[in-house]
Amino acid sequence: MPRPRSQKVVELKVKLISRIGDGFLRPGDRFMSNRALAERFGVSYQTAHRLIGELCAEGWLERRRASGTYIAGKKASIAGIQLLFHARARRPGSFGTHLLDQLRTRLDRERIGFTISFVHNRASIRRDLFPVIWECKEAVLPRLGPRGYALLLNDLAPPGLAGTFIDTIATDDFSGGVCAAEIIRSRGHARVSVLGGPKTDARSVHRVEGFCSLLPDAQVIWAGGWFHEDGAKAAPRLLKNDAAAVFCCNDRLAEGVVRFCQTRHCVTPKLIGFDDAPIAEVLNLTTIAIPWDELIEAALAIIRKRLRGDTSTAARQILAPRPVIR
After folding, report:
1. Given the DSSP bridges, would you call strands 61-64 and 68-71 parallel, antiparallel or unpaired?
2. Contact 168, 155 (CB under 8 A)
């Protein structure tokens, strides 16, 4: 007559079923081996073998010969990529347009299928595609659910459970602000200002904070937006301060200041931008560059991984910006 099962083993089986069913493990995910289960929970190898065998027989797990044990069920397949970009990526010469064009070129080259959706307030999500998101996470992430995989470009991960599934590639904005301050300080400018973008945008805030950590006496002016018209609107306040040099938190803001000064036939202060968008080359603007090639390569690596069905914990990559002196 077989010995009755100990309470410890009974409770362990309940715990394993609860873990499999909690939603964090998905069909096709690898499960613990017999040895790993025995070591983690302090049971014999034979007991671990029996438990996993029972879970397989009950439909919770499945064994694959010469491969291991996996969560049972049909693994969700991803047919391609859904590029979800804020509607302002339609603006010619903008950061978003440049990023989208580079990404599309690489996806075409690697023959990875994709769709493009321009998002403003609402987004329609396709469940068979992997979302790649720029500047519209507030409209997209709630529709994914708390355990939906996605990639955020040039942005930080959301806090909490969602962050476990959201891959992110971001730029070190604080460090970029420090770089701009170092360049301005090396040129010996006495009166300096910072032109920030939206005060509610964390990237703008971090760039300003980085700059002011080195040059705390700099006057800070908030443009309220990221476009050249926002920079032009803020330009009179900059000129009133008689700043010799201005760090603009993106290149479009710098363009607005330049255009305003040209229209009014006044002297343009020395400007440093951020992003290295195409307009920076046109303006011959010194800027703190987002490492575009590295960003695209990192994005492609994550996309390939998710298309292969990889369900590992989300990656968070922070890229260092670099100055482009013009």
Report:
1. antiparallel
2. yes
Average pLDDT over residues 119-142: 87
pLDDT given for residue 211 in this prediction: 97
CATH class of 173-289: alpha beta
Q: What is the pLDDT of residues 229-271, one digit of tens each?
A: 999 999 999 888 888 999 999 999 999 999 999 999 999 999 9
Q: Do domains 7-71 and 173-289 have the same CATH topology?
A: no
Average pLDDT over residues 149-153: 93
Query: What is the rounded distance in angstroms from the CA atom of residue 156 to the CA atom of residue 315?
Result: 11
Q: Is the dihedral of CA 309, 32, 314, 163 positive or negative?
A: positive
CATH code for residues 80-172+293-324 = 3.40.50.2300
Catalogue the E-assigned strands of the chain.
Answer: 61-64, 68-71, 80-86, 114-119, 129-134, 150-153, 166-171, 192-196, 219-222, 245-248, 270-275, 286-289, 316-319, 322-324
Residue 134 DSSP symbol: E
Encode pLDDT of 305-317 as tens digits.
999 888 788 899 9
| Cβ partners under 8 Å of residue 225, min gap 6 | 197, 198
